Amino acid sequence: MRVIIGLTIALAVVLTTESASVVQEPDICTTAACEAAGKILFANLNQSVDPCTDFFEFACGGWEASHTIPADKSSYISFDILDDNLHKSVKESLSKEPSKTDSNAVIYASDLYKACIDDVTLTARGVAPLVSALNSVGGWPITGQTAPPSDWKDSLAKQVAKFGLSTIFSVSVQPDANETTVRRVYFDASGFGLGRNQLVNTTAYPDVVNAYKKYILQSAVLLGAKDDTQTHQDIEDILTFESKLAKLSLPQEKKRDSSVWYNRMSFEAFNKLTDNRVDWLKLTNDIFTQFGSTIRVKSDELVIIQDIEYYKGVTELLSVVPSRVVSNYLGWMAVMSLGSYTTKQFRDTVFNFDKVVSGVQKESELWENCVNNLLSTISYAVSRLYIDKNFSQKDKQEAANIISDIKDSYNELIKESDWLDESTKNKSLFKLNAIKQNVGYPDWLLKNEDLDNYYNLKEKVDKKKSFEGFLNLQFNSGFRAFKALREKVDLSLSWPMPPAMVNAAYEPTQNSITIPAGILKTPFFDSQRPAVLNYGAIGLVIGHEMTHGFDDEGSQFDAEGNLKNWWTQAIHKKFDQKADCFVKEYSAEYVPEVQMHLNGKNTLGENIADNGGMRESYRAFEAYVKKHGEPQRLPHVTEYTGQQLYFLSHANVWCSLWRPEALKTQIEYNPHSPGKYRVNVPVSNFKPFSDAYKCSPESRMNRKDKCVLW
Questions:
Q1: How far apart, in whole angstroms, are the C-alpha atoms of residue 38 and residue 633?
Q2: By the 8 A CB rule, do 560 and 430 touch?
Q3: Which of 147, 203, 258, 705 has a C-alpha 20 to 30 A away from that of 685?
Q4: Which cofactor is essential here (predicted)?
């Protein structure tokens, strides 16, 4: 399906005589792209470190020594520079006056950005817009309102529609994981203001918990509360209630098993499940009413509950907790979500909290907050601006070509697998080849009419009312999702992530991979540099995402994205044995900077994907070499072979620095291992790395017992 085009590759020259063949060493690439690539690789190296002892430090030590964490960041990874450039490009586009030929959605985004950065108007308006918004959903008792707290179910329904916020109970409309052509209403535990572990064991995190209480207090005072005994008691009650909610919820690692999170039943059965303490049918229909929708669900309609024990426990809890406490918690979650849209004072309270939680030393500039807010609320319009300026059809095609190469190599690895039976191999190959590819951007994005139809914005931005402009987008987003309950699922309309994002994704319910335009830049991809560097960077990312289709979670879904057990019990047992190797291997990794071990269970899927992605992309690189010959050497790093450059390119993506607070949070909650371990552990499991760098059997980067799945 594909040939990589536009890359600077030199074939090895073979001189043939009647008696012998002499192979000439690959020459040195002298193009500007090669010069730049070689210079970066060299600058990032720390050649005083043995690559067989600590490859991450060898590949990234120079980068670490020459960079510091920006004051407004909690960590700094090499590709954060790419993310920063994306934000600056978007800022530049949004700052311009829109033209008459721009889509209405783009004009809305541009006008809202200008309103968002108008700090003079934000200051003049103060917190009045937030107070008005809170009053529209039942108020916030802690601020001293005299009206009795409203019914929490009424407040929750209004918050879902008006703020795009689900508190206590998360309510959404999504494709049914077991029947992905149909949408259902989903209920899950909601997010919390602190991490689950911090709420479950508050005494173990005194600094964070105290900062959280201070955050609530400062926010309440800004909205008119008195700093008195009653306010402090309200804050203690909020924290106690939230802690109880967290204890009733499942830890993230336990939700990797679909038998835990997929529970489909009728609304009638759902009501009975919670002893009719809550009429879930009425609550759901109230949400549709708040959206102005005529859709009504019925008692026999199916609904999906993602945390059954949480719903049993919380409905019982709500029957005994005072209404003031529940209303205060709902109000606080709304304030936490919306406060930063108002004044500098509110943004300062957020920063003071983040400083304790993540270690940041400086508040982000207002324009950065505004760009981030627009990227999260009207992402496709903002992405259109980015695509028009920064992305070509050629890049889109070349990335698609690499995907095809990776898929070919993964096909080979599945066929060579020694733990799959023939039937499961065939099903795996069928699923792999059925993976849908979202590359760069969806084609409809470039058509103004389609972009406007997607958002269907009825109002224009009042440039003096940015707060209301963002609330309108939140309502618009929720309205689109809920009104689609009866509509046919169209995967082309909404990707798992927008194009203007430095990330990538596999979506199991779609069996699709998404490689957004935002990630198709250096250090991940450059069509002008040698192919080896692209295989080592974006190639590994692509392989990583494909592997998610066959990790501990993705393997529970079939080729159509339906939740279906297509493995035999014997195959599951073999998979679990191999997966357990990764769990133990990563859990044994100790991070001395924060005196913690990695969580091998929570990071299992990502670790499997990192290891599998390396095998797939390296296999694809080998196939490329067989077809095109050894890659040219690079200036500044001429001593390194193509094979060695592949691993350097991969490691360079993950060069990183961390503040201790952020590193702790990463290890405790994030399903991804920190960058150092995303480099060192996979290479230590991979024989071609040891061969390339001639690592002895006793070296740390050439572990004796290698974990291998794919």
A1: 9
A2: no
A3: 258
A4: Zn(2+)
**Taking Cα atoms as reference points, which of 291, 285, 330, 308 lies closest to residue 185?**
285
pLDDT exceeds cutoff 50 at 12: no
Max Cα–Cα distance, the chain, nearest Å? 101
| 483 C-beta neighbours (distance < 10 Å), count | 16
Check pLDDT > 60 for residue 237: yes
Q: What is the distance between the alpha carbons of residues 659 and 54, in angstroms, rounded to a whole number?
A: 21
> Over 90: is that where the pLDDT of 461 sits?
yes
DSSP code string of 409-476: HHHHHHHH-SSS-HHHHHHHHHHHHT-EEEEES-GGGG-HHHHHHHH---S---TT-HHHHHHHHHHH
Homologous superfamily (CATH) of 127-342 is: Neutral endopeptidase , domain2 (1.10.1380.10)
* Domain 1-67+403-437+518-709 CATH (choose: 2.40.50.140, 3.40.50.1110, 3.40.390.10, 3.40.50.150): 3.40.390.10
**Adjacent-strand bridge partners of 591:** 596
Give every CB contact of residue 626 below 8 A, 6+ residues apart in sequence. none
Phi, psi angles (nearest 5°) of residue 276? 55, 25
**Is residue 167 classed as helix, strand or coil in its secondary structure?**
coil
Q: Band of the pLDDT at 149, cuts 50, 70, 90?
A: low
| Token pair belonging to 277 | 């303490």
Q: Is residue 266 within 8 Å of residue 299, measured between CB atoms? A: yes
- Produce one character per residue of 551-566: b if its CB has 16 or more CB atoms within 10 Å, e if not: bbbbbbbbbebbbeeb
Query: Please, which pLDDT band fits residue 148 given cuts at 50, 70 and 90?
Result: low
Q: Which of 57, 398, 545, 558 is catalytic?
A: 545
Tokens of 9: 């590759």
Cα separation, 554 vs 552, whole angstroms: 6
Between CA 272 and CA 266 the distance in angstroms is: 10
The token pair that represents 117 in the structure block: 């950065």
Give me 425's structure tokens. 């191999």
Looking at the predicted structure, is the pLDDT value of residue 250 above 50? yes
Structure tokens at 599: 């969580």
- Residue count of the chain, please give it: 710
Instruction: To the nearest 10°, report the CA torsion of 198, 200, 205, 207.
Output: 70
Pair 251, 282: CB distance under 8 Å: no
Where in the chain are all domains bearing CATH 1.10.1380.10? 127-342
| Set 558, 610, 616, 661: catalytic member | 610
In the residue annotation, 610 being an active-site residue is answered as yes
The answer to whether residues 123 and 343 touch, using CB atoms and an 8 Å cutoff, is yes
| Three-state DSSP state, 57 | helix
**Contact present, 54 and 592 (Cβ < 8 Å):** no
Residue among 605, 655, 491 nearest 67 (CA): 655
Model confidence, pTM: 0.92
266 bridge partner residues: 302
